[in-house]
Every structure is written in C-alpha cells, then in structure tokens.
Amino acid sequence: MKNKLRHILAAYNADVPNLFTAEGFAHLATVALTASDRFVSDQLVTELEQHQERLRAANHRLREFAANASLAEREARAVLASIPQVGVITADVILAELGDWRRFGSQTEVASYAGLPR
Known about the structure:
This protein is 69% helix and 0% strand. It is mainly α. It has 2 domains: 62 residues; 45 residues, no CATH class.
C-alpha cells in the first residue's frame, strides 16, 4: 500500500519523505490528482489505516498475553530482555518456538532444537 501510494505521488512529482505522518497525509490531500488516482489513493490510505488498527489491536493483545504469562515465562522474558538487541518481538518469537525453555539442559540443546550449527 505504501509503495503504491508513493508510486502514484511520484507520477505527479509530489512524493515526500514524511508521507506516512500527519503532515504527509495533509500533503497528499492537497496534491491535484486525477479522479481515478484520488479514488485509488483514498482507498489505499483507508486500507493502510485499517491494517494499522489491526496491528495495534494485535500488539495490545500480545502485551496482555505476556502480562498474564506464568512466572517462568515472565522470568524468561526478563532474561531475554536483558540481552542487547533482543526486543519484545524477538522474545515473543523465541518463547513461542521453544515453549517451556526449562526442558533444555544447555544452550547447545536449544541451538540444536532451532536447527542452528553448534
């Protein structure tokens, strides 16, 4: 959607770096587009907003899920969060893939389970 919007604006030499901010959307509204390009761009903006709303809802639900996790999982999240460059998403993926991480006896077993070289 973002690429399609940029493509439309590029045809009018009106693309701006901050297109997906409030200022960028205000700019988009002022560009003199053909009726068909305005229709398409309006549809793309609406679709983008809907995707962003679904993403916010999913992120909210994931935060609720993490907050209600077992003590062991919360402790695992805290350990993962202490690792540089490991954020919430990476921690979620690791814990989702590993399940109960206590079933592994060593880092080597975790790496082997994940299919990583030793």
